[in-house]
Amino acid sequence: MNMQLAINWEDNDKVINHIAQHLKRSRITLVVGAGISKDFKLPDWGALLDALWSGDTPPEGYDTLPAKKQATILFSKKFNSSQENLKKAVKHALYKNAKTNFIELHENLLLSSIASLVMSSSRGSASNVINFNYDNLLEIYLSYFGFTCDSVSNPVTWESNKDVKIYHPHGFLPFNDKNDSSEIVLDTSSFNEVANSNWESKLFTLMSSTFSVFIGVSGDDDHLEQYLERCKKEHIAIKENLPYWGVWFTTKKLDNAVSMLWKEQKILPFKLDSYDDLPDTLFKICQQAAQISK
């Protein structure tokens, strides 16, 4: 019998050991979203759109629209569909109140624990990160420790020998840096474009051959959804008759509707009593992988 099939998936310690086994083999992909940036005063989606209106009034009926439709109206009415104007405004709103100095970054346990997974080690590392945020806080943090990062905002690019590769499929607007991506994904049209671009093959190839760990991700992103749908059928773990190909950290109850949807995608919801418990869980994964390596 495949021992992985015999795992008690309701036992968090057993799940931590399973993830550590993948980390030991350096076959983990981190998938991160807005949840990892909130402690640094970066705006969430709603606050970002509000900031981008900046004194102008949205048209009647705007509040009834889904988020991406709101962004479509914003992009057209406020920025005349100009990516350059949009990027400039988004970057200003993004970092206006952001905490980006080393002390504040270093004191954040979640960022530290994510970095511990990413940093090179004989116990393995998660050297590929898919970041659906525009910011480069993780890159800034890693650079303080002398790690080199390849921030990828174009799916067609040269390979590099840097320590960590961080993919930014929705665009990249780094703090205190002029290396912005040519476009960012915000409205309906840009979401559709990126979903049907070279990102599709790039990210699917990565996710379908590694164990994915989802942190700070809600799961309501249409772009991410297409990978979840495809991986639940074509991931190597599924082909080997394993029940899950990834784990999603959450504070929601396991019988919550959102948790059930993640489970339908063959991704295990890992229940935390509090999101404050997540750093300790990630550190345990690293420590367990180190024990396996002895």
Automatic annotation (TrEMBL):
InterPro entries to which the protein is assigned, alphabetical: DHS-like_NAD/FAD-binding_dom
Pfam families xrefs: SIR2_2
Protein name: SIR2-like domain-containing protein
